[in-house]
Amino acid sequence: MAPDMAGTLPRSFWTHIVPQVLHQEPAVRHAALAMSALYEKYRGKREISNADKRYAIHHYNAALQQIALSKPENLDVVVIACMQFICIEFLRGNPSGAMVHYQYGKALLLTYNASAALLDIFRRLNFFIFFFSNFAGTAQTDYHCPPPSGPFETIDQAQEALGWLTYRTMKLAAGIIMNPKKVYNPEYAPAIFSQCEALNQDFEDWSKAVARLKRRHPLDVQMDAYKLLEARWLVCKIWARGNTSPDALKSEKEFRRIVEIACNVAGGRDKPEKSPFGFPALLYFVLMHSRTLELRLVALNIFKEKCLSESMLWDSEMIYQSAKKAIEEDHNIALDRELDRRMDGGGPVLDEKPGQIYAPTQSLCSWVLVVMDACADMRQPKKITN
């Protein structure tokens, strides 16, 4: 299970940190057994049985009791268990429960001198704030992390820096979502625009630092990991820029590159049948925000081929159907007939030039489009039992 949890990108937490304490700490051991039982469904191998559910709940409760009753002196153990509990709740389909454990673990980290590895894990989990909480009243701790300009000695450091930049971008997004009128308020708009510009520069610096890292290690076997980092970087660039340029095709080039990476990482007989961790979210971003029909059809086809059959933390069928519905409404087509027609020719493929561009509908006007409009204006004068 640990290598799969680690994914394409490095995750030493599962392959090194947890195994080191697994046999000495009963709470960590019980939590690992609960995760293992639930993970069978996530992997899509089989539907989890009632017996496995009871087994997982038994060990989950045992882990919780161990933490509550034994009160380990080594707080790292409690934080590690918190991370496991977060995963268990996600595997059970209960993100609100995962958020409770996240908040507890994060608060605990602030009470002692925690290891850098654990701080890094919870820095990445800061994203929970933006997806599974109401933002208000949620502590947002800005942990220290490598500067975006590097230098990076390993891909781990590059990933860590990108994670921090992503967090800053989403923090800005959360502020806009909570109070979108600020974007048009002359008192706040310049500061928002300045933050977007600063993030743009930091993302460019990060890209240059990664290019230097790749030149020093040209035969690095983790090329898929580099490509996935590039795809995340492109998504964040679109967010961070706030689409300050009104030229829609500028973003379309980035969407196209994300899909090219997806084709490369997911395609080919030598590639694993399982899509890399985080892969569906990147495709979904393109599916919901691209304005090119051909590009969206390619992304939808990859999602169907590589992601739809998997049991993901989010409902893959719901994601697929929502993207499909958005494409049908935006382009005024019946997608089943359109895909059947294109499949007769071997399936949708990336053309050499951009395809049909649609006018975005209100349903797709996310905060990104709000910022695009605003910044364009600013350029112009003026106990578990189940």
UniProtKB/TrEMBL annotation:
<dbReference type="Pfam" id="PF11951">
    <property type="entry name" value="Fungal_trans_2"/>
</dbReference>
<keyword id="KW-0805">Transcription regulation</keyword>
<keyword id="KW-0238">DNA-binding</keyword>
<protein>
    <submittedName>
        <fullName>Uncharacterized protein</fullName>
    </submittedName>
</protein>
<keyword id="KW-0479">Metal-binding</keyword>
<keyword id="KW-0862">Zinc</keyword>
<dbReference type="InterPro" id="IPR052360">
    <property type="entry name" value="Transcr_Regulatory_Proteins"/>
</dbReference>
<dbReference type="GO" id="GO:0003677">
    <property type="term" value="F:DNA binding"/>
</dbReference>
<dbReference type="GO" id="GO:0046872">
    <property type="term" value="F:metal ion binding"/>
</dbReference>
<dbReference type="InterPro" id="IPR021858">
    <property type="entry name" value="Fun_TF"/>
</dbReference>
<keyword id="KW-0804">Transcription</keyword>
<keyword id="KW-0539">Nucleus</keyword>
